[in-house]
Amino acid sequence: MNVLLVSQCRKNALKQTRRVLDQFAERRGERTWQTPITKAGLDTLRKLLRQSARKNTAVACHWIRGHDHSELLWIVGDASQFNARGGAPTNTSRRNILRTEDENDWHSGQLIHLLASMAALLHDLGKASQAFQDRLNGRLEERNRYRHEWVSLRLLQAFVGEDDDPSWLARLEKPTAEDDACWLNRLIRDGVDEYASDSAPFSQLPPLAAAIGWLVVSHHRLPALPATDEIGAQKWVGARAHLNAGNLPTLPQAITAAWNERVEPAAFERVAPYWTFPHGLPVTEAAWRERSRRLARQLQQIRSDASPLESPYVMHLARLSLMLGDHYYSSLKDQGRLNGQWSLDFYANTSNHQGRRRLSQPLTEHLLGVTRSVGEITHHLPGMETALPRIARHKGFKARSRDARFRWQDKAFDLATGLRDKSQRQGFFGVNMASTGCGKTIANGRIFYALSDPESGARFTIALGLRTLTLQTGQAYRERLGLGSDDLAIRVGGSASRALFNQQQLEHQQRDFGGSESRANLLDEQAHVHFEGNLGDHPLLSKAVADPHTQGLINAPILVCTVDHLMPATESLRGGHQIAPMLRLMSGDLVLDEPDDFDTADLPALTRLVYWAGMLGSRVLLSSATLPPSLVRGLFEAYLSGRAEYQRHRGTPGAPVHPVCAWFDEYGCTHSDGDDGNAFDAAHHAFARRRADKLSMQPATRRGRIVPLLAPSAHPDAVHQVVADTLLSEALTLHAQHHSVDPHSHKRVSFGLVRMANIEPLVAVAQALYRADIPDGYQVHLCVYHSQYPLVLRSRLEARLDIALDRRDENAVFDLPDIRSRLDSSEEVNQLFLVLGSPVTEVGRDHDYDWAIVEPSSMRSIIQLAGRVRRHRPALVEAPNIALLDTNIKTLKRQQAAFSRPGFETEKLWPLAQHRLETLLRTEEFDSIDSRPRLLPAEALEPTKKLVDLEHARLASLMVEGAASAPGQRRRKRRGEPQQTELGAYLFYRTPAMTLGAVPIQQQPFREDNEADSEFVLLPDENEEDFGFWRSDRQGKDERLVPVESELDRLPDEAIEHPRVTPWNEPDYLAALADQADAMGLGLERCANRFGRIRLKPNRAPQGWHFHPALGFVRKR
């Protein structure tokens, strides 16, 4: 490719740019270079320019496509030096003639700035106490009895007294000696003054003071509802409290000292230092007075009918600004700090100097420095989005689909293009329900690309629930659209998982006989413009991206991540973890992929995320083929409430809140304005009905039948044996009806999946299969697949399945070395490749099986698992290819709530009357298995009698206000028993004051796990002939490995020896580890230390674990 490079750099940046460009291209002028170059060479040049870029750097690269045509590829540095096509200005003026950047729509920008700045000036006043200074100097070791931010709030309360906002601000502007004295003279001291418990600050403070006080007390962590244990003692801050919808606390009036720190009775001499100020306060210093005077004067000019505390948008952006300013200024060593004559009587923090802790920033300097940083941040919030990188004029997103299966994407793209301007004004809530295999992943990106301004480019995030699916989605975007690491970031957490995934991708590419030349041509055709943005020179972003992890989350135009990376925007109880995800939501759109795959307990947190996305201005797209209507409506109403809050402070004042709503699938697309939940519900129901009608006309590719399952007793051994016998019998039947013939050996081969609900019975059934009587002529290749494997074993297992179960070319599997060797080494005519898996098999893997057997947990899992059968080979089937066990192992063991964990049943509130699929399923729900039962609920739900009705009823009760309550609640009411009202996901956005505390996070946390886990590692011994079991104990960055061999029971190889059953996964840990070490060029011990790790829950396994490489870990009984 022939490129032209134009530099508009200034000062020293021009010299540096010339040094780089001269190595790659010939000069055609003082600021112009031209050269033929490969794609790889151009990528290297761009990376070098980015590494040396500074605020005066500006380089444009044009691809010369022909005699009369060139195309802008990218701009490094200051994009404002060029127009949208890469042209340089003829003349320039320093006069800001258009002043378009002044025309921002931030109606509350000044209020956010003043609240955050005043809070910054007050936020650490409590650090002047004797207790805090003693702690800095190492003279106080005990835990905080009262945190400094609570003391700061009490100091503000003391100064305000009983004044209204104009009065206390006037006193702060022109303080008298009496005003200076009231900071301490009127101070209410918790733990000392008896009346302190009756004087909650927010029940007395006027609106502006209360807003500033909330910012002060929450600048490290949100106030959390105190929780008590069995004897009435307060638990750790943030623990779940006993609470139901009938006794929600009133915020912020209910906040007391116990919401900020665990409060325990203590002697006067232990508490007094927290309320003693031997050197006074910084409020009497001249520099502090000057800044407070200016802010007080400006705050007196604020005129607002509503309290700022009633606006989550204002309060949380002000809190973000305060926390970011505090974090940034606290991190400064010397350069960038304020100069002045500061009092050295009190300090704000310490720093590490040559391994020793020393006092760092004087308190007055810190307060003023944070105030300055907060001012810079809030003043530049409106311009933050335009300073971030974006991706524009990308041919891959715009290209029309050549494959008929994907032409629906073109219609979706066209509809989104037509809605572009409207969605920017009104917001956007979309639903993509296209079937599996129709290209939803790429379609979601195309929809948001079409919604974005074609000149400025797109920014969006794809958030998924599973790590493996996140890696696959990111890889799909990179391969199909030619996106590099600058354009697309993948964040999953766990560097070891990423390293193994990348290694497998490399090996897969090396096996690809298509040739790299054709791929290189494809990438050239996907050339596009990457607008760099100007992060380093932006007063807000330069502070936020100082941390590399934060930079990775914010910087890339397209981010593919697990939803865990965005959840801190709403779930962060303490610290500044919400800053990066909030900035991401403020600056780009959001795809939520497979939101219905989350556990019911996680849906309130997902609802909060969607509310937050609407409040911060994002457009939202839900993507799943099995979205139940109550979940969609609940998330829409959360978005609508968030968007209403956004439009109160942004956009046209008084404009109605009608976000654009759109629905997409492979049969078409439609849109409407979402006026309210009922109107949206009607539009969604019409779309779902049309989709269900279309699905009913498709040939049945997945047919089910119910298989009786009875056990002679409830003893676990008897249950596991009867399940194993039933599975084997059904597997042989399904193999006979749904096999393929190996073209080389003419043997009958099938790939089947057995889904089981829980790991422990799964492993027990696997062991029973290794003891089973297999008929002559049959060979079973058994793969036991669940989450409890060391990382290297699970990664290699999944890589093996990914290759074998890609059936797009139906006969390619017979040429794989692994499959070929197994078929050739066995004389049996019938070869069954059987995956015995936990629910991890249902989602996240692009696998195609010939048939499946299901231990039922929910209708959702049945439908999801059915999507793995003939996934790549849709064709009409006559005989059932999915066997549904009539019940599950929990029923056979006579457990009360059998369809739970996983499942929707609970013992008290949501019980099922029967646990047999013969009564729980309607014939049409399993005769041809697809998403229809999830799309449209029955007109009259029977949640105690029908499995899918239970799911619809429970989701509606959780997500939709006013839905029918749980059957267990109604029964308790009839009996006159005390009612316990469940907390609905909607309580968070229906009551905006709930955002002022951590109550939703405490009561309905995301991915709650109350059981501590530990990390273990399997390390080879000195001779590398065996391995040991070690526990990893970490303290900060230091790790200590403790041998715990006594906790591991190694199952002998005889447990998996059977002439007609062979393991299809790795039976030898050290052999697998050695292969991985060789592939990555690592020593065996180093490879084990990185990839031989697993996280287990010791409290669940007091007797330790059984382990075999072919079976994984399972707790001992």
Primary descriptors:
32 strands, 38% helix, Rossmann fold, 1117 residues, Alpha-Beta Plaits, 8-stranded mixed beta sheet, 15% strand, single chain, 5 domains
**Order of strands across the widest beta sheet?**
11-13-10-14-15-9-16-17
The name of the CATH topology of the largest domain is Rossmann fold
Major β-sheet profile: 8 strands, mixed
Query: CATH superfamily of the largest domain, called what?
Result: P-loop containing nucleotide triphosphate hydrolases
Count of alpha and pi helical runs: 41
Report low-confidence residues grouped into runs of 5 or more: 511-527
- Percentage of residues in helical conformation: 25-40%
User: What is the CATH domain class of the largest domain?
Assistant: Alpha Beta
What's the N-to-C terminus distance?
66 Å
The total beta strand count reads: 32
Describe the structure.
The structure is a single chain. The chain is α/β, with parallel strands linked by helices. The chain folds into five domains: 88 residues, 2-Layer Sandwich (Alpha-Beta Plaits); 247 residues, no CATH class; 261 residues, P-loop containing nucleotide triphosphate hydrolases (Rossmann fold), CATH 3.40.50.300; 231 residues, Rossmann fold, CATH 3.40.50; 102 residues, no CATH class. Helices cover 38% and strands 15% of the residues. It has 41 helices and 32 strands. The strands form six sheets. An eight-stranded mixed sheet has the order 11-13-10-14-15-9-16-17, with helices on both faces. Strands 18, 19, 20, 21, 22, 23, 24 and 29 form an eight-stranded mixed sheet that branches. Helix 1 packs antiparallel against helix 2 and helix 14 runs parallel beside helix 16. It is globular. About 2% of the residues have low confidence. GO terms for molecular function: ATP binding; helicase activity; hydrolase activity; metal ion binding. InterPro entries: Cas3-like_C, Cas3-like_dom, Cas3_I-F_Cas2, CRISPR-assoc_Cas3_HD, CRISPR-assoc_Cas3_HD_sf, CRISPR-assoc_Cas3_yers, P-loop_NTPase. Pfam families: Cas3-like_C (PF21802), Cas3-like_C_2 (PF22590), Cas3_HD (PF18019), Cas3_I-F_Cas2 (PF21384).
